[in-house]
Amino acid sequence: MLKKFIAKLARINMFTFFLLFFSFSAIIQAQEKSSFDKYFNTNLSTKERDSLNSLLELWSNYIIKDSTNIEAYFNRGVVLINLGMHHKAYNDFTKIIMLDSSNAAAYYNRAISRAKYSYNLDACSDLFRAYKLGLKEAENIYNQKCGYFKKQIEQNK
Q: Which of 7, 44, 97, 114 has the fewest CB atoms within 10 Å of its CB?
């Protein structure tokens, strides 16, 4: 079966290949953005995703009106985490930290965004900062997940 498939592929000339490739690309680009959102967090129902996207739009509008609105950045970041868009949530929590470097919850949530794939040095550093700013939950996670980095982080504090 594989040999037959390879033989068919060999008969396709380059023009046909590029025609199919660009046609497929155009189809993908034509699809609505919302159809791609479902791939960020597959645990959400369509109704939940639509609700979160509405909240995302709401908080984004607040940020457009006032780019120093910490509450709007925070809430949008939480929505982005729930949508599985951790890289974008990270940016919102970083903005909060730029506006208020003593915001423990921003450090904590930025750590959660960073730690989506692993508890690396940056994520553990944020957890340590949130813990030192008084967030008890950050202390618990820091102690559980960041043993490898503790010595390095605590020496650099």
A: 7
Count of CB atoms situated within 10 Å of the CB of 75: 18
Residue 61 lies in a domain: yes
The reply to whether 25 falls in a domain is no
CA angle 132–113–117, rounded 5-degree value:
115
Helices (H), 83-120: 86-99, 104-114
Q: What's the CATH number where 143 sits? A: 1.25.40.10
Say if CB 62 and CB 92 are below 8 A apart.
no
Q: pLDDT for 79-123, tens place per residue?
A: 998 888 888 999 999 999 999 999 999 999 999 998 887 788 999
Residue type at position 53: N
Is 8 inside any structural domain?
Answer: no
Q: Which two tokens stand for residue 136?
A: 């008890």
The pTM of the whole model exceeds 0.90: no
